[in-house]
Amino acid sequence: MRWKVLLTAGAERDLEALHAYIANHDSPAQADHVLERLLKVADDLATFPERGAPPRELLALGIREFRQVFFKPYRLIYRIIDKRVVIFVIADGRRDMQTLLAHRLLGDPR
After folding, report:
1. Which contiguous run of DSSP H or E holds residue 28?
2. Whether 102 contacts 110, CB under 8 Å
3. Cβ within 8 Å of residue 91, ≥6 positions away
4. Strand partners, 86
5. Could you tell me which of 13, 45, 72, 99 has the fewest CB atoms within 10 Å of its CB?
């Protein structure tokens, strides 16, 4: 059975920003490659959504309903809701993930 995979508006903006950054700081071809790989990782969640583990930053807060998968160094943070996989964040894992996740997933205005 295939699950439906959805990207939130924030995750779509993440992809656009990553693509633009890589295109400007490396090459458009590399940006396209990374985008294709990230979309493949997202699409793979349609067949096995439970494969990801909870992000350690959220586990430290006792939050277990979110999961993550990787295309190193990038992280896709998602949640399974009904028969859907909803991707909330696609980010370079070298960023300050604690602040990003608090803001994006928990509504912390900082």
Report:
1. helix 28-44
2. yes
3. 14, 18, 74, 75, 77, 97, 100
4. 6, 79
5. 72
